[in-house]
Amino acid sequence: MKRLNLLLTPLALSLFLVAITGCSVEGQVEERSYDVKVTSGADEAKALLENYSSGTSVGSEADGFDILIKKIKEESPEQAAVYEEALNAITAKPRDRASIAKKALEKLSSATPAAE
Question: Residues near 35 by Cβ (< 8 Å), separated by ≥ 6?
Fold first, then answer.
């Protein structure tokens, strides 16, 4: 029993010191910052329509269409109607998503002048 106490006491003391001081060494943590590109609602919706036009399935992102439409209405009211119509139609008829998305993209490209 005495021998067991001789082994457990230093072990318990070591664990106690590690718990108090922690395992990390101060000054070793390097802070990093990352630039995040903020996209507009119209850019997000256009990316979704492009994916749908190529056959991508409608997923859980459809739950956020109403929030996306509100964002587009704040940024670009003139385009919001086209996006709203397309996203609502895709929600109602997911099987027709490719043709709905293609038509909406055509409307948007004809309504937006080329910026070149």
Answer: none
Number of separate domains in the chain:
1
* pLDDT, tens digit (0-9, with 9 covering 90-100), for 2-36: 666 666 677 777 777 777 766 555 667 778 888 88
Instruction: Tell if the pTM clears 0.70, that is, is over it.
Output: no
Range of the domain at 94: 41-111
CA atoms of 66 and 93, how far apart (whole Å): 16
Tell me the residue length of the chain: 116
Residue 28 in any domain: the answer is no
Q: For residue 87, which of 39, 51, 36 has the smallest C-alpha distance?
A: 51
